[in-house]
């Protein structure tokens, strides 16, 4: 499938597009993992990005070499101190000094709030690292135990390719914005450094200007990669849950296929068999149903774990995104449309848009996917099985009536209507800021 994508006709016409598709295909193939062994390539790819960005998730990634562990440890400490903490402090110092100027305030707040939310999300992930590790173990156990048929394995691989592709695209969008900002900063150092979005931060004057430029550009870029890694870890876990819900649905589809095959076999072998014998086909469907119930209980526990670990930080993200959308929209109307600052603001607004949309899209997808479980279970030809099967199915249908829902701190669901609501409220705040600025 991947090779077919790379050899499409448009790729031959556009060499750059062909190179990008080959890179995506190679990345997807290299990190391809076996679900029977509980290997999740997209999670490994996500953790690899987090480790490169300087997030201390060594507990979640296994490194054989002690030298790599030592290097990663010191590298993480340096990045955490100088990028995650010190640069954020420099931004907030500039925010305090310029709180009276609406234009400077909105420029600073756009990135300061993003970094503040990112810092909280990183600290939350590090604080709950053991819980995340247990959560990953549950997902791996579910893959090893319940991904049996070829259709289920193919469904897992399709989901993995989709997850990796979105991670690559999301990272590329944010990285492009960061690199564009670095280029503009070095081309206009006196206009941009410490004075214009996204580099509004006060660096001590005794630091030479070249070092200030290098420190600002690298800090903003690395912090952006940290936020991408920590955000997509949450999104990735939600998508893994959606993938396993698809696998669970295939279990009931398989039950329907099995009963059809057995009915054909029984009708061809003996036309005089009693009707009561068809109600007790064999013990295999009951075993499959019990496995599906166990799988559903495991996924329900996974959903609760994800909600418990990330719900509060998602609420902070939604709140800051609402403000950031308003700030960036206001800055886009204030700045000249042809200026470098306006271009960066548009790119940055696109990054925040993608971040929030991915949360809401996959949260909504999990909810909608979980709503199909009762119907799939009811359509599994239950009337052809014995009473034990029907009782077990009734237990499953009762538990499956409650859909899986992710929330932002319990206040609002991760759904597409919530995403639309945030955009609508942001537009109202943009109008308010324009009125204040006009005075």
From TrEMBL:
Pfam families: 7tm_6 (PF02949)
InterPro entries, alphabetized: 7tm6_olfct_rcpt
Top-level lineage group: Eukaryota
Membrane topology listed for this record: Multi-pass membrane protein
A GO cellular-component term linked to this record: plasma membrane
GO MF: odorant binding; olfactory receptor activity
Intracellular or extracellular location(s): Cell membrane
Record keywords: Cell membrane, Membrane, Olfaction, Receptor, Sensory transduction, Transducer, Transmembrane, Transmembrane helix
Major place of residence: membrane
Membrane spanning residue stretches: 70-89, 109-127, 165-187, 213-233, 309-332, 344-366
Biological process annotations from GO: signal transduction
Similarity-based family: Belongs to the insect chemoreceptor superfamily. Heteromeric odorant receptor channel (TC 1.A.69) family.
Stored PANTHER family: ODORANT RECEPTOR, ODORANT RECEPTOR 19A-RELATED
Record's protein name: Odorant receptor
Native source organism of the sequence: Glossina brevipalpis
């Amino acid at each position: 499938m991947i090779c077919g994508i790379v050899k499409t006709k448009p790729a031959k016409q556009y060499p750059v597009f062909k190179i990008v598709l080959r890179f995506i295909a190679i990345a997807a193939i290299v990190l391809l993992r076996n679900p029977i062994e509980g290997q999740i390539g997209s999670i490994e790819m996500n953790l690899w990005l987090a480790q490169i960005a300087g997030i201390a998730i060594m507990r979640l990634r296994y490194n054989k070499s002690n030298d790599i562990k030592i290097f990663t440890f010191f590298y993480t400490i340096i990045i955490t101190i100088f990028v995650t903490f010190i640069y954020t402090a420099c931004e907030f110092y500039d925010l305090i000094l310029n709180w009276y100027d609406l234009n400077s305030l909105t420029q600073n707040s756009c990135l300061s709030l993003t970094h503040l939310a990112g810092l909280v999300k990183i600290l939350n992930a590090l604080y709950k690292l053991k819980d995340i590790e247990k959560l990953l173990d549950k997902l791996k156990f579910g893959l090893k135990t319940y991904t049996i048929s070829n259709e289920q394995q193919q469904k897992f691989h399709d989901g993995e390719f989709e997850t990796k592709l979105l991670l690559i695209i999301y990272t590329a969008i944010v990285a492009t914005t960061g690199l564009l900002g670095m280029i503009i900063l070095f081309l206009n150092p006196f206009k941009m450094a410490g004075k214009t979005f996204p580099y509004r931060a006060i660096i001590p004057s005794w630091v030479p200007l070249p070092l200030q430029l290098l420190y600002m550009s690298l800090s903003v870029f690395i912090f952006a990669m940290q936020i991408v890694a920590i955000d997509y870890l949450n999104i990735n876990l939600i998508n893994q849950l959606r993938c396993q819900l698809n696998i669970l649905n295939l279990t009931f589809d398989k039950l329907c296929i099995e009963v059809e095959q057995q009915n054909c076999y029984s009708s061809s072998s003996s036309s005089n068999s009693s009707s009561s014998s068809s109600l007790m086909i064999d013990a295999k469907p009951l075993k499959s149903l019990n496995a599906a119930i166990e799988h559903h209980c495991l996924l329900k526990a996974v959903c609760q774990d994800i909600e418990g670990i990330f719900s509060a930080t998602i609420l902070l993200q939604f709140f800051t995104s609402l403000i950031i959308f308003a700030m960036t929209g206001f800055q886009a109307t204030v700045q000249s449309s042809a200026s470098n600052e306006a271009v960066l603001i548009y790119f940055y607004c696109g990054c925040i848009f993608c971040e929030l949309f991915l949360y809401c899209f996959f949260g909504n997808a999990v909810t909608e996917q979980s709503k199909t479980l009762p119907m799939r279970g009811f359509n599994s030809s239950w009337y052809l099985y014995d009473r034990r099967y029907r009782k077990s199915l009734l237990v499953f249908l009762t538990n499956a009536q409650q859909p899986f829902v992710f929330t932002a701190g319990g206040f609002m669901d991760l759904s597409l209507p919530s995403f639309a609501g945030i955009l609508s409220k942001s537009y109202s705040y943009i109008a308010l800021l324009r009125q204040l600025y006009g005075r």
